[in-house]
Amino acid sequence: MDNNNHSVFLLTYHLVMVVKYRRKVIDDTIALRIREIGESIGKNYHITFLEYNHDRDHIHIVFKAHPNSELSKYINAYKSASSRLIKKEFSHLRHQLWKEYFWSQSYCMVTTGGAPLDILKKYIESQGEKR
């Protein structure tokens, strides 16, 4: 759990970002650099990585955020900076990617959480009942 002056919260998300055209260009070295960039940028958005892994054409991140974290701005900044830096630092990738893009425009982000949705629904439905 995290907190600030007026609240206690635990906000976790699972983010999947895919390489443009599903090109299989991510190796362990590139994946490590992508992670470093994401963690560095995340500090400005109160985002902390909890888990990170990759395949050849996509990455998975589980991260926690604050209620005031601007998630879409973070993701856009992360994709932009990592695309620019990866292509600069690993110039051999330019042959496998078209134009200036590294990441696909789309991404998948879902919330994660403690209790399953049906348990939460039952809890909320039971509020106000006499025991």
From TrEMBL:
Protein name: Transposase IS200-like domain-containing protein
Boundaries of every Transposase IS200-like domain copy: 8-127
Top-level taxon of origin: Bacteria
InterPro entries, A to Z: Transposase_17, Transposase_17_sf
GO terms under biological process: DNA transposition
Coiled-coil portions: none
SUPFAM superfamilies to which the protein is assigned, alphabetical: Transposase IS200-like (SSF143422)
Pfam families in the record: Y1_Tnp
Example of a GO MF term: DNA binding
